[in-house]
Amino acid sequence: MNFTLQIWRQDRPGDSGRYETIEAHEIDAEASFLEMLDQVNERLIAQGSRAVAFDSDCREGICGACSLTIDGLPHGPQQVTTCQTYMRDFRDGQTIRVEPFRNNAFPVMRDLVTDRGALDRIIQSGGYISTSTGPQPEPNAMPVSPEVQTTAMDAAICIGCGACVAACPNGAAMLFTGAKVTHLNSLPQGQAERGDRVRSMVHQMDAEGFGGCTNFGECSLACPQEISIDVIGTLNREYRKAVRDEKKASKKMVAQ
Amino acid sequence: MSSTFTLDAKIPAGPIEGKWNSWLDAHRLVGPRNRASHTVIVVGTGLAGASAAASLAAQGYRVKSFCFQDSARRAHSIAAQGGINAAKDYANEGDSIRRLFVDTIRGGDFRAREANVWRLAELSANIVDQAVAQGVPFNREYGGQLATRSFGGVLVQRTFYSRGQTGQQLLLGAYSALQHQVASGNAKIYNRHEMLDVVTVDGEARGIIARNLVTGELERHAADAVVLASGGYTNVYYLSTNAMNSNVTAAWRAHKRGALMANPCYTQIHPTCIPQSGEYQSKLTLMSESLRNDGRVWVPRRGRDSRPPAQIPEAERYYFLEERYPAFGNLVPRDVASRAAKIVCDEGLGVGGTGRGVYLDFRDAIDTVGRATVQGKYGNLFDMYHRITAEDPYETPMMIYPAPHYAMGGLWVDYELQTTIDGLFAVGEANFSDHGANRLGASAMMQCLADGYFIVPHTVTNHIARRGGIVDDRHEAFERTEQEVQDRIARLINVNGTTAPQVIHRELGNVMLDKCGMSRTAEGLTEAIERIHQIRDEFWNDVRVDGRADELNQSLELAGRVADFIELAEVMCLDALKREESAGGHFREEHQTPDGEALRDDDRFASVTAWEYGGEGGMPVAHEEPLEFENVKLATRSYK
Questions:
Q1: Could you give the CA distance from residue B414 to residue B418 in angstroms, rounded to a whole number?
Q2: B32 touches chain A (CB under 8 A)
Q3: Model ipTM value
Q4: Are B290 and B380 within one domain?
Q5: Strands B225-228 and B424-426: what pairing?
Q6: Are A24 and A40 contacting, i.e. CB atoms less than 8 angstroms apart?
Q7: Burial class of residue B467 in the structure, from the number of CB atoms within 10 Å of its CB (0-12 exposed, 13-18 middle, 19+ buried)
Q8: Residue B586 lies inside a defined structural domain of this protein
Q9: Whole-angstrom Cα distance, residue A188 to residue A145?
Q10: What CATH number has the domain bearing residue B563?
Q11: Distance in Å, alpha carbon of A65 to nearest chain B alpha carbon
Q12: Contacts of residue A45 in chain B, CB cutoff 8 Å?
């Protein structure tokens, strides 16, 4: 198959970038989108040109490194990561536009490589259970019903790629944050820090410059793990409750 | 070069059950108020690295954690699917620490160190407890109890799992524990940083040189101890189940500074991977071994049978694992299953476009327990297979073929997980210690987390308590090492040839898979070494690195890694040549039983071979650590 690529090129953070047209000839239909780019790069290097920089690692849809916007859609036309998008999903002779994930909180480092450190900082603000290494209670002393496990696991499978942010017209990171809050707040282990967790994660989300959710639902449609928009409902509910509880607690303090 | 090492594994005296506790009772401590003045570097943020960094930081040390990925959460442990073993005997089958120990020693074909394996089995239960406390959502039974299943090579159900994404959940548990420590100020993560050398002062590891992959700047980081958790080297085969960027560079740099490389020829070829479809392919995708619990492996009895699999009647199907190994059937260890698949394909019975594939069939499972149950257990794996191959495994059998997956070999470490460089530790897949010549399923995650959570935090403490004065990064050794790294980068760029580094990597991979893969011969290995020399010359005369050193440059990163893989490949072949026996994943065609099973030679090779770097252009020197089996009887492995 043959394709014409319009690829975003940018030399360093803050530079004004440009689209470059690159031909991709004789590509096997069974090659993944990234394998197509590998071949393009191999040829660019052999010609003495500069290869296109892009992030990828596991190439099996689980590490979340890939971060391309293909024809305006994060990861591409199928609801899977770019590494699992195959050229058979495109038309022979098609012109394809390839850009990095778009969001102000994800600055471009070079070409298609972005900095998604903001997502790590949201986790740092409370996306964990504060326990340190050492003797722990016997797990079966704290049963977790399969229904609760399923709710937690359906959210915990988030790969942290940021496609939800790139797809959102508001640039919100609420699917990402909601997934972590749903995972930890639904488990018995996560109860002690339930309120603090959601308050500080939401605060960090705002501090990073992400927008707010207005129920477009694009995030869930772009999510390669098909995480349900329900997690945003949970996030909002948990947040409201946490703020209410905090107010009650501070009133009590004053009364005392 | 003459030998300068005596390999002392420092195994504590006394009965095996008490060795670890007696070590813990006797090791030196560092007072809680003093810990903040000590820095520990951890390279890699996979299961071993993240758990080590989180645990050391929780103890109060200043931890610098390095990863080349954009986020610590992306290390390749994330892709582990099946599960983690723990000797908890929840299934009431009479499982025990001793049984897990025996299974692991036997699965490794009697080429692992007993004391280390016992400790691993002993700590296995703590790991699951730790993970649950962190909020890892393991699968549960109806009453809310933890669910377990059986996994390749054992007869008990001791494997804990989170659907088919156990590695992801365990890694996110360790990653979030590490992020908690970042928030508390004890740990700092250096993402997009690649370790390019270890700095030694008077033979002791005192820091590293790392390249900032965004700016290209070289950075000096001094520390009281360095922990390498940099993973395995299976990408030496080019196509493997590893991530694209998995590499041997950190370990190899340490090797060239004096850390011995043990058993490099022990690599695992995993039986259940999606077969290769074309030359452009960049990696092979693993389908969890847990599929062998319910899937039946077969090929048509007639070669090149063109009928669709569903139309081939029962009598014309060759269930080769069930026929050859009636006791374990489809659940034989990985090395056995892989070789059996290779043999039937060599006989011309393979299926698929290339003839290098066998069926993994769920027809009977779906008939017996129903589609919904099969979906509940393996839904995400079936979807993944469907996505990649465009074939629906509920309707037609999967096609699988073995692929390079895991490195049992690695940096030689003693009982304290310390390499032959004082103060340099190696954990997880980067070391060699626990799996012998073949790793059992669901054992890798167990080993990584035992090393990281429960062993290295104590052995690093013991080292820090004993070490001498403080060295900072202005020491002359940092200056010199940084210069050497700089020179090497310049050398890579200055070749200025015409071939992209990935092209040379692919050539190397083809040689290694062919000659040093699932089966090996003296003749083939000798040929391979010659080819590797040619590839090395081609690399240093014709590689092309586009772009500069002072910017984000992925070709430069890859070129450095390929150069190290080329050097490693030679030592792998030398090791495979020297080991004139078949053991686990190392199969020498000259050494097999009349029915084609691996034939060990315990009189000559019940030992670890650890290779010392021979200097530029020099021959590596082999050292031996004899293995003693006092708690499990040396016997021929049989899964029949």
A1: 6
A2: no
A3: 0.97
A4: yes
A5: parallel
A6: yes
A7: middle
A8: yes
A9: 10
A10: 1.20.58.100
A11: 7
A12: 500, 544, 546, 555
Instruction: Name the domain count of chain B.
Output: 3
Contact B73 A49 (CB under 8 A): no
Instruction: List, for residues B351-409, the tens digit of each pLDDT value.
Output: 998 889 999 999 999 999 999 999 988 888 898 899 889 899 999 999 999 999 999 99
Tens of pLDDT, residue by residue over B602-625, are 999 999 999 999 998 899 999 999
Confidence of residue B470 (pLDDT cuts 50, 70, 90): confident
The domain limits of chain A are 3-113, 117-255
Contact A52, A44 (CB under 8 A): yes
DSSP A213-245: --S--HHHHH-TT---THHHHHHHHHHHHHHHH
Pairwise CA distance, residues B292 & B578, whole Å: 34
- Tens of pLDDT along B86-141? 999 999 999 999 999 999 999 999 999 999 999 999 999 999 999 999 999 999 99
Identify the architecture of domain A3-113 in CATH. Answer: Roll (3.10)
Specify whether B543 is located in the same domain as B555: yes
pLDDT digits (tens, 9 = 90+) for B199-208: 999 999 999 9
Angle (CA) B161-B165-B166 rounded to 5° is 40
Q: Which amino acid is at B282?
A: S
In this complex, the residue of B387, B546, B551 whose CB is nearest that of residue A80 is B387
Amino acid symbol at B217 = E
Q: Does some domain include residue B517? A: yes
| Spatial separation of the C-alpha atoms in residues A36 and B341, rounded to whole Å | 31
In 10 A of CB B587, how many CB atoms?
26
Cβ atoms of B235 and B506 closer than 8 Å:
no
Q: Residues A53-82: pLDDT tens digits?
A: 999 999 999 999 999 999 999 999 999 999
Name the residue facing A139 among B132, B172, B179 (closest C-beta).
B132
Residue B71 burial class via C-beta count within 10 angstroms: exposed 0-12, middle 13-18, buried 19 and up: buried
Whether residues B607 and B544 fall in one domain: yes
Whether residues B142 and B260 fall in one domain: yes
Are residues A165 and B115 in contact, defined by beta-carbon separation less than 8 angstroms? Answer: no
- CB contacts, 8 Å: B138 with chain A: 139, 149
Say if residue B345 is in the same domain as residue B433: no
The 10s digit of each residue's pLDDT in A221-239 is 999 999 999 999 999 999 9
Long-range CB contact pairs, A242-246, < 8 A, 24+: A242/A194, A242/A195, A242/A196, A242/A198, A242/A199, A243/A199, A245/A195, A246/A195, A246/A199
Q: Are residues B46 and B168 in the same domain?
A: yes
CATH topology of domain A117-255: Fumarate Reductase Iron-sulfur Protein; Chain B, domain 2 (1.10.1060)
* In contact, B419 and B409? CB cutoff 8 Å: no
At B317, give phi and psi (nearest 5°): -105, 135
Claim to verify: residue B340 and residue B399 sit in the same structural domain: yes
Mean predicted lDDT score pLDDT of chain B? 95
- Helix (H) / strand (E) element for B299: namely strand B296-300
What CATH number should be reported for the domain holding residue B361?
Answer: 3.90.700.10
Q: How far is B381 from chain A (nearest CA, A)?
A: 11
Under 8 Å between Cβ of B572 and B236: yes
Of B69, B72, B388, the CB nearest to A84: B388
Does B301 share its domain with B385? yes
Q: Comparing A30-34, B72-76, B122-126, B632-636, which segment has the lowest mean pLDDT?
A: B632-636
> Which residues neighbour A123 within 8 Å (Cβ) at sequence distance 6 or greater?
A180, B175, B176, B179
Domain span at residue B340 reads 270-405
- Note whether residue B24 is domain-resident: no
DSSP single-letter state for residue B69: S
What confidence score (pLDDT) does residue B596 get? 82
B36 is a domain residue: yes
- Which are the catalytic amino acids of B? 334
- The CA R_g of chain A, rounded to the nearest whole Å, is 21
